[in-house]
Amino acid sequence: MDHHPHKEKHDLTGYPKLGLWTATLGLFAGLTSIVFYGVAGPEFKESLELSGVLLGLLLSSPHVSKAFLRVPFGAWVDEVGGRKPFLILLGLSIVGMAGLVFILFFYYPSDFNASLFPALLFFGILGGAGGATFSVGIPKTTYWFPADKQGYALGFYAGIGNIGPGVFNFVIPLLIGLWGLTAAYFGWLAFLIVATAIYALYAVDAYYFQLLDNGIEHSRAKKISQDLGQDYFPSGNTWASLKESAANGKTWILVFLYTISFGGGFTSLTAWFPTYWYSFHDVSLVVAGLIAAIFTIYGSLIRVPGGSLSDRFGGENIAAISFGIMAVGALMLTVFSSFLYAFLGMMILGTGMGVANAAVFELVPKYIPDAVGGASGWIGGIGGAGTLIILPVLGKFVDIYGQIGYARGFVVFIVLSAICAAISYALKIFVAKGD
To answer: Helix H segments across 61-179?
Structure first.
């Protein structure tokens, strides 16, 4: 394909695997921001003397911008391609991280107190913009690959890209122990800058968008891109994509399923688990970070085979089974207080979440083929906002029940997982039959 005459004639660059790898790198870097404070949650809780609810608010602050920016930026891909939205979001995340490093440098530890809470919330919100890259990379990846490779490509993108928070859940506590809090976050800032620079150098949009940029008319650009293997194309601009996807009822079903499997579920737990393991099971901050990292990395990687399973057996079937597995894991975390059973419950929950999320996104181009960007924006944005509810709710269980509240809070996931399993089964019965 690299020597296809259309590529040479129209001066087209890149190829699907490069598009996939650069999108994955951008997501890996940007999504680290969802654990902006989570990795050092216990440190911030103690230094600022925060209640459970206020800690939940601080941990969820990056998810505000992540949620609200996913909607317009995901849809914007249908108009300009993914490269520009990626770079803007990563740039905003760098500014937020730089602001936090500035506060830590001048105020931590001697003058680090509750008066800084509003500023920390602000920089957390700004830094979380990188988390919005998720809904940008979904359509960017979709437009690079043919229909029969969607589960694989999106599973790889989301699976490998989502390792970022897990890696940083482990690395940052280690760096805090070695270098101190300020230097650890400075190292994180340096990583964001380098990753963004690499993305800027190598990332290219799918051929259709390159052809439009080169002045080729829409229908001809579409024909050339189809010859090069592209199956999905945007039906209009940002607003048209949002409007068309919003008018499709299946979009809102996928919004809810994504909220529980990932946007409000998995991402909440990547930020919550360091504090859960540190405060409830009384392990060190480094060990708590390692356990949380295992959850995040495993739950992300399993999305890769989850995507392939969805291609093979259908997203509806895989989603129904996976949400059932989620309920089992959440039940174990709720009922058992022992370290071993809690760890096993966490891994079962992570299995269900990872595979369910891969299944949900296999259904996006299938259900909303003409507005993948808009649908990804709604799903990633509104679904991602679930974190703003779930994290404070988990904190409230601790405020009400004390120490045992860390375990009892997982009852929320039992109920929500059961509802999602029923919805997924209904999709299999009705939507799969064309009703």
So the answer is: 62-80, 83-107, 117-127, 133-142, 150-161, 163-179
